[in-house]
Amino acid sequence: MKKLLRGAFVIGRRDFAATVLSKTFLFFLLGPLFPLLFGAAFGGIGASVANSREKPVVAVVASEADFERLKVSRDRFADAIGDQYVLRFLRFEPAGDANVQEAALLASRSPPVEAVVTGLPDKPHLAGPVAPDGSTARQLRLILADAAGTYTSPNLVVSHTDTSSAAESKDQATTGQVAQTALFFLTLLLSTMLLSQLVEEKSNKIIEVVAAAVPIESLFVGKLFAMLAASVLGLIVWTAAGAAVVASFKSLSALPPPAVGWPSFLALIVVYFAMNYLLLGALFLTIGAQASTVREVQTLSMPVTFAQVLIFGFAATAIGSPNSGLAFAAAAFPLSSPLTMVARAAEDASLWPHVVAIGWQALWVALILRVGAGLFRKTVLKSGPRRAWWRLRRA
Q: What is residue 203's predicted lDDT score, i.e. its pLDDT?
């Protein structure tokens, strides 16, 4: 029994010391803080996206006096039930042909227009992708009745159109959000495997033989692109299968079209998946190369996964407002740039920002691989016994 307890104590002390005295244990200790941070951050992501997106308005083509009466009634309803639940109005001066002006306003994107009101005060007419008995028409009838000082709803004529800039903007933001989320989860599933790429070869002393034959940079790039090729193949298969399933239930032409068009958008999804994988994969390969055992890789997996979620949250805040300062910051930060730019492709038809972004991301891939190979050469392939991390004075 004494021998058994002594052996158990030795094994327990060894495992405890191997975990607690490792460089990665600090990240493990910080792990419980991440869910709290994510709860606070992601609790406001939906509201942040909705608030950052330019709110749609109902364009009112009327004189200043007629619009002022409408606005006073609208403000009374807002005081009663809350401003966020009441239609937002924006006045436009009547100009030229009413039908031409109506069509131009419905196509306006700054701000996005939900519907257009004309013919005030005697013959009110509402045009847009709204139903005669929908919320927009019902609210407008109540506001018009209050503005006229009557208790009966006015004879509001509703002309339904196929789309408006507000509906199109919302659909494109949804397309960008779906693409961004799919890209994030695919990268999350595949890139973390690179954390353990070099552990087995290091433990079997194979890495020294390989490093003697090829440069360390070649080793890193070869492993990274081999995993990327397998991942892109899987992405193509999954995309084709998903498109076939969607097409069997609903025509692809009926889906919300991205701003750059479907062919360019699908091509950009593949490119940005590759860049996202290369950026995170190069970083994870660098981190994983510093680990010596599977235990250290498992300890690193949790903070690395949480870091990916934080990056996704940062990129998600740019949806709905591709030209905001926050969107430009997310596009400039290399690790969130691919996710941000794939959402931008759904909302903005310009292609030149993608050329700049892809070049910027490729530059950072090369930089991370260069730094990672240098760290691997200095900290892993050096000769002599390993020192405890707290005794290291130079790296």
A: 67
Alpha helices (H) along the chain: 2-20, 25-30, 33-43, 45-52, 64-81, 98-106, 135-148, 165-191, 199-203, 206-213, 216-249, 262-289, 294-316, 325-332, 337-347, 352-379
Report CA Rg, the chain.
29
CA distances to 87, 133, 188, 269, 322 from 314, in Å: 30, 39, 15, 19, 13
Q: Is the pTM of this model over 0.70?
A: no
Q: Which uninterrupted H or E stretch holds 116?
A: strand 113-118
Q: Give the mean model confidence (pLDDT) for residues 91-110.
A: 79
- Closest C-alpha to 57, from 72, 45, 69, 74: 74
DSSP β-ladder status, 157-160 and 113-118: unpaired
- 314-326 pLDDT tens trace: 888 888 778 888 8
For 220-242, b where at least 16 C-beta lie within 10 A, e where not — what string? Answer: bbebbeebbeebbeebeeebeee
Cα angle, residue 172 at apex, residues 48 and 258 outer, rounded to 5°: 140
Distance, CA of 224 to CA of 69 (rounded, Å): 65
What are 143's two structure tokens? 């506001």
